[in-house]
Amino acid sequence: METVREGTASRDGEGERPFELPEVMTGTHGPEDGAGTGTPWPDDVPPEQDDTWFPLRDQPWKARRLEYLIASLWMVTGGCGIGLMICYWTGGQAQVEGALLAAAFGCLGAGLVLWARFLLPGQDVVGSRGIHYSDQEERAAVVASLSRGTDAMMARRGFLVKKVLVPMGGIFGIAALWPLASLGPRYGRFLYHTAWYPGARLVDENGRPIRVGDLEVDGVLTVFPEGHTDDTLPQNAMSPAVLLNIGGDVIHERKINVGFEQRSGGNGYVCFSKICTHAGCAVTLFNVLSMQLVCPCHQSTFNILEDCKPVFGPAPRPLPQLPLLVSPDGYLYAKSDFVEPVGPGFWNRGGPA
Ligand code: FES
Hints:
By secondary structure, the protein is an alpha+beta fold. The chain contains five helices and twelve strands.
């Protein structure tokens, strides 16, 4: 509906003259009011609107059947949640997990759509665009209207909400938390110790115990604690050590290095961690002339005669030493675990020394 209000305009030679501006009425209308009349929403909502009406209200058997269908869909969602947990627990399989997730969300969504479309109370209401704000009273009316709908929904479909949606959604929600396990195993004290222990005999890769006479002077051998030769197992991975026979004379010459002598146990044998303190490569090269161990990855060089102190390359600290003893029957064994934690990283960032 249009009304007319006055304005002015100027045109050369004509001076000012009144002209007409169209004015658009705000407000809403009902079918009986005609366009442009009426009052803003929510008064558009027919006062006689029945808040308990829903599409299947007059077909209770159909509503009941639909309820069962929705319940079944949500139970499938819950079942998929259980399936996800089992699948994850047994090692996981990306395709199966994807299918289960799709089925779970699909059934959950389908159930919600059917529920909203056919079982929730409410009618389609057409309202025109009116003024774009609501006063306090109108807001209160909207809230009251929504509350009536919610009450009616809970009164009629409490079974679906409380007995099916909440428990099944809960199961599915718990299943969604399971990937947290992918953050990795709990290390506990694993990083603080290796498989070496007091009294552990030194053995070669075949598990053969090492005796004092087995290694000639300037000889080198990778050794493991007895019973822990499989260094592919996480609990053994940090245990490999380099056993060197640098000769009793050399040790004698270095008598000034008290710590060295005490830890080596004499007899020319010394033993150091084989895990480089830079980035964890295996320290495999022994330079007899300079009495140095060299890591092939980035050439960190450790001076054996100075407790394997790094003298070149990026390694930040010495290779930890394994204190040795000799049993009465001539076998080499560990007096304790390494004197400090082995490997790189964690220990250089403030871990216990
Ligand atoms: S890992 Fe040994 S020097 Fe880098």
